[in-house]
Amino acid sequence: MNGNNGFAVTGTNTFDYAGLFASGIGDINGDRIDDILISAPGPLGGTPGKSYVIYGRTTGFSPNLNLAEINSNNGFVINGIDGNSSGTASSGDINGDGIPDLVIGADGGTTNGGINAGKTYVIFGQQGGLLAASTSQN
Fold it and tell me: CB count, 10 Å around CB of 101?
């Protein structure tokens, strides 16, 4: 692949498990080009993972995109706060505002005192961009 006919996305660290879940998520930043959500749950054992949004574009990509290169120009990073924040889903427009939303699962999340009970976060898309370059799930 040369960037014009496709590209590879690589993780930032050993045991990132980047790409365990990946999904097209529609146009999350409102530029009329579909975007991608990639999970990197990180090492096992309850360590918070990350999810990466890569903005689609009409110009070519580099043949290899390392997730460490994600910034506010080409996407953003969602830093998990729960163990193994990893699952991603193409969710559509959950709140009816015409902009796709994100769904991120955290199978190691603690809820109501239940360790590893799991949690799912729904993050609403916004016109002109979703979130800052580095965002935490709160």
Answer: 22
